[in-house]
Amino acid sequence: MRHWTFRVVLLEARIILAAAGLSAGAGLNGAEGQHGSFDVTSFGAKGDGFADDTAAINEAIKAANDSGGGTVEVCAGTYLSGSIHLRSYVTLHLGPGATVVASSNAQAYDAPEENEWGDAFGYQDAGHSHWHDSLVWGEDLTDVSITGPGRILGKGLSRGHTSDNPPQKVGNKAIALKNCRNVVLRDFTIEHGGWFGILATGVDNLTIDGLRIDTNRDGMDIDCCRNVKVSNCSVNSPWDDGICLKSSFGLGQFRATENVTISDCLVSGYDEGTLLDGTRRHSADNPAPTGRIKFGTESNGGFKAIAITNCLFECSRGLALETVDGAQLEDVTISNLVMRRIFGAPIFLRLGARMRGPAKTPPGIFKGLSISNVLAEDVGDGQGILILGLENHPVERVALDNIHIEFAGGGTVAEAGRDVPEMERDYPEPGSFGVTPSWGLYARHAKDLVVSRVELRTKTEDLRPSVVLEDVAGVEFEHVKAAPAPTAKTFVLKNVAGFSAQSCQGVPDTQRVNAVENERL
Q1: Is residue 209 one of the residues assigned to a domain?
Q2: Closest Cα partner for 91 from 46, 140, 35, 134?
Q3: 149-176: pLDDT as tens digits
Q4: Based on the structure, what is the number of domains in the chain?
Q5: Tell me: the pLDDT tens digits for 247-304?
Q6: E-strand spans in 344-463?
Q7: Which domain, by its residues, includes 417?
């Protein structure tokens, strides 16, 4: 009798589960420790690439949330969709062979919400001022995940326009998250992600792991986020940045991006789609692809306590750390980088005064940076390592250690005499400063710079000096190899106080305590 009663109860439970769209016996089988499984086809999704599956996907997500949490299963198929609304305690799982395709119908997307800090004041680009006009978005959520191994194809997404202000009600981001916590993005692919493959703003406890992103603008932007782990990702973004940390004023407050680790990632600038198909092509129509790791340019709130390690740069621009809108950039350590086919400065450090943000905000602070164990080859476009501060606002406490870089070379005597423009209020792109008067390292408005165990060399003869320092206080070079051409000098010092060179190739050990107006070594 007891066995018969149990079977009746189990049958009734299965009927209830089926009516709710859960698979029989799902129980606690959902990903990330959640409660049930909800197949989007049970809610009417066709997955044929033609039917609009937006409503079905959103209904499945709502049902999972209403039940207290669960996993929404997107099984093999092609699901055409507009704006998908994430909810708390729900995992959106893109299964093997599943592709969610961004609709080309502008009416399928939610309108961008109002944001006085972007719309009225223009403190940041429109893309950083709105989140709802996206393929997948969530706001004020907790415990939410998107997992793979399926794909998001942003076919109908806009990449923005020259003015960075796309028309209203056009989907322009693959995934956008605002003011969320406990978020996991894992193991899926984003192809052709629009303005941003991922835009995370004000997200705490964020894990991004094992993603493949091959896209037409930024791969991922991590903006005003705390406690972030990015690992095991491959990001190809020929026309914009790959992995980008920002701290905009999009939330109407100064909020730092802090406690961040980025590890074991590849960033590149090959033609879009060719990382995923394995061909890794580079066409002449994009002579200087981007595809790098960068801090900025949106930089109001600050960057603090950040560690980057074990990352590869291929066919891209170099590492760029920029604070130009009043942010404090401090306590950053970067190690174990390999760079190949780099366009422009392999390392670019910039404290500027663009000051796009609330009035009377003072210039930022850039201090406390360690970069070590870097191997770069085939570095072109006439720039070495660039360290650029502001007069009376220097870049401070930078240590460069165990770095080996091979530059293309070919610089001229005329280029050695070139003055680098200040451009303190301009957009901080290293290429804007032009060819530098030194081929290895150029530093201006810096303080407490330590360069040790560094080898810089050129493939072809370069008639510029190896290192030029201007308005620098407290700089140490130790065990540095940077041999110039026979007619050039290793060091050119202009308004430099507290200079020392120990065990540097071709230069006698030198100590200059007092300010040096103009000296060549």
Answers
A1: no
A2: 35
A3: 999 999 999 988 666 666 666 899 999 9
A4: 1
A5: 999 999 999 999 999 999 999 999 999 999 999 999 999 999 999 999 999 999 999 9
A6: 347-351, 365-380, 385-388, 395-409, 441-460
A7: 317-521
